[in-house]
Amino acid sequence: MTLKNILLLITISLLSQELSIAQNIEILGFGNPNEPSIMMDPNNTNHLVAGANHNFYFSSNDGGLTWASNTLNSSYGVWGDPVIDVDTSGNFYFFHLSNPSTGNFLDRIVCQKSTDNGTNWSNGTFTGPNGNKVQDKQWSVIDRTNNNIYLTWTQFDNYHSSNPADSSIILFSKSVNGGDTWSIPKRINKYAGNCLDDSNTVEGAVPAVGPNGEIYVAWAGPNGIVFNKSIDQGQSWLAEEILINPMPGGWSFDIPGLSRANGLPITKCDLSGGPNHGTIYVNWSDQRNGINNTDIWLTKSTDSGQTWSIPTKVNDDVTNHQQFLTWMDIDQTNGNLFFVFYDRRAHSDNKTDVYIAVSKDGGDTFINKKISETPFLPYESIFFGDYTNITVHNNIVRPIWTRFDVNLSIWTNITPLDEILSIKNDIIDLNDINQYPIPSSNIVYVSFKLHHSSDISLEIYNQKGELVNTQLKNKIMPYGKHVMTINLSDLKLNSGTYYNKLTINGQTKILRNIIIN
Q1: Are 286 and 299 within 8 A, CB to CB?
Q2: The pTM is what?
Q3: In the chain, which end has fewer C-beta atoms inside a 10 angstrom radius, N or C?
């Protein structure tokens, strides 16, 4: 073997070792980007396209390891709310708001198309112009049986108007020819909202396609989270939307460090052919547990949206800290659910991590994993954006998020799924560790909850700091709630003050105990 080949093998080995470690990839670190969207081509998972406010686009041909970036242009204007989609031929679509040189600000939804994996883009087509009315917060889905493109969004009569005569509604439009032309927008909600861009505005309409071509969509507004559907490719819809959840506290709420935040819903449908085929899922966040304890939620329907399950909490922490700006996707090769969200479970201030949650059983249980390598600290004076995003296919997971250090930046993670799932989240909520009764005589109980398999030690010390007993030493214990029993009678300890030292993955809590014989 030549020296050149040996060096090549060493380089490949080192690269493989490097890639086996959790990797955050910075996509863009300048220009104050936010509100990222990302899409993977299921036919070639190395091809990824992403976008960010106001007019950034990014493309990768190596699975997200490296990215090319540029700015999008259109004669209709490019003004944020980027949404990326892809059809079965590998054509990517970039949907965004408008700012045309002639016409009105935000007066249409623009669709630009790329036939070369996001390198070049058409000037675009559009749907939605309606005089001075504002068209906002669009989302798309493509039916992969026929490449029909479906769009839903919010129309404001007069944005930020407090006049009760002005309202917001949900509109639907479709293209059956690859985005060349669009149907006349159709209103699909019975109950309108206000125009204040708050919890009483109807927003968050993210469409999904069902197993027989149904179109499903949920949104939030004055009636909570509601649902509508069409079984004829959008020609007709239910006359009245179905209530999914009252969404206590509404979709617009405050998160410290953000200029604004929302818990708008995301709708997805399982088309995998697996055990949950046809199940509709809706994911959101709200503050039903308090303004300092925002949580991520999931509900599902197995009867085409007629009835919905009791919401299940996606974040598995037991802290009273914030989880917010969620997004979800379904791996349509196996039906597994994936979520990305910001998380402050490990911090008492506004420091923020990024987590992925995975469910392999149709949303009954969740595995939470921190994927950001370091926390960051956002500031209210910097607009952070309204959403994150995630795309998944065949166990390849590519989340995308905004973070703030000196500047706003856009990031993804390219860690293989099995390595993500093997990461140990070492942060334990020490406030969830308890012991009882106190004082005690015969038996004392120590309770705690583990978020994953963890290394546990439990030792007993006297007032002099001397170790008097070891109950456990470096025992691996599984996920779940645990109650350990210390039989004081067997230890034959004198009356007095003792300290139970519980160590979980290197984190320690000292529990003071008074023994009375």
Answers
A1: no
A2: 0.81
A3: N
